[in-house]
Amino acid sequence: MEEFWYWMEVFVSGTLQGVMYSLVALGFVLIYKSSGVFNFAQGSMCLFGALGFVILLEAEYNFWFALLLTVGMMIVLAIAVDWVVLRPLTARPPITLFMATVGLAFFLEGLAQLVWGTQPHGLDIGISDLPFEGLPISISRFELFAAGISLVMIGVLVVFFHKTRVGRALRAVADDHEAALSVGISLRMVWGVTWAIAGIVALVAGIMWGTRLGVQYSLSLIVLKALAVLILGGFNSISGAIIAGVIVGAFEKLLDVGISVATDYQFGGTESFSAYLLALVVLLFKPYGLFGDEIIERV
Amino acid sequence: MNAENNGRGAEPLLQVENISLSFGGLKALDSVSLEVRKGEVLGIIGPNGAGKTSMLNVINGVYHPQEGRILFEGKDRTTMRPHEVAASGVARTFQNVGLFKAMTTLDNLLAGRNLFMKKNILLQAIYFGPAQREEIRQREKVEEIIDFLEIQNLRRLPVGALPYGLQKRVELGRALAQEPKLLLLDEPMAGMNMEEKQDMCRFIIDTNEQLGTTIALIEHDMAVVMDICDRIIVLDHGAKIAEGSPDEVRNNPEVIRAYLGDE
Lengths: 299, 263
Known about the structure:
Chain A is mainly alpha-helical. Helices cover about 70% and strands about 0% of the residues of chain A.
């Protein structure tokens, strides 16, 4: 029984971390769905948002006020990206837009360094990383909180996408650009809104991961883990991103601990690469991911 | 097409004047002029590669012509973008069905009402209150169209799973949801069987006669075109080679040559 709870704890902790991966992956999916662009700058947006937030907190601003200001900052950023990067490149092939987002990624990191310096910052949002008492397994308060916030965000987005007019316009654009234009939906409005939402998702993900890892430049590298999640879940499926995030989180934790235990703690540390291994295997058998749209082209 | 249409369609709704469009060295349209008259069903026909779809895309604002101008209700709108064209009262369907395939029939038609829901974008991004009341108002109009096209049983189905003929019908429904002054149909019968074609013909005629919508359509099925169009324009190699009533066009030697070749 002892052993069962031990593995249960590994599983739950992996799952909760997985939900945080999902949150990062979600930002990619939003933009990919609406414009067919893989936004390389998503990680930089996480860093940019988290850094802005932590600087405001350190300047003794109220928590909620700082959050509101950074949300505003991400929206302004989204509008700026829309104007400066996306508009001039409308109707260019996706690879051009992708390269533009690579540029954007480096620009944002550079800008953040220029404005806020290169120091790493600790971020404390007032939720302790201590486990709950009295449970058979130990679950970190913070992990549970972060997973909860992620789920709420995801839930809000799902309602927004499926029950509101703007959400319907976003889905319409994701489905067929030309047809969306023909019913009078402005692509630019939709892209502006999508980038703003992706920016806010990036901010929340940045704050969560920043609390975990500290706000510093390697924060933008969490996108690499999200990449494995995206490959697993498919680039254009919101539910895919969520489920794949959980799978990746649980898988890498269980594998890591499993190997450690099986080899009597001689080997371990697979957590840093096992997600990509999983993605690779999925690519071999399901190239569009587990939940992505299969694209069948007539040759 | 018959007596009751006489006298209708005298006044021009859309005028296309000396339009030229080329892609690099390829001339898709060469100084073409045409007009769509209020209340008529205009057929645009021609062999493959004649420039029919290019013409539709120019009218729709997808392409902007290098030369010439377009007047809609007397106003110049040569350089309008597609969503602005839609806002001015032009709806269209696509050759290969341009539906939002992952969405239900209802959502597709509601998306067609997009232009009529001009409330504050922030308010429309929430689900409750004024946004929901607006949604109900739009829903009533959509229900009328659903009845008109006899697609009551498709409301909740994702359109990607429907048979092709029904997809075309839903697409027509979405265009009608825009309450267009001018409806552009790009091969509305393509890929349909006989029965589906008859249904579609009936809906096009009903749209024209009951709703009073002006229609311009591209179609390859000659029997259909001759049957439902008041006037026909024939394009070949990017130029207009004939124009007139179905009978006039049918007997025009230029047209016969374009279709059958010199012999």
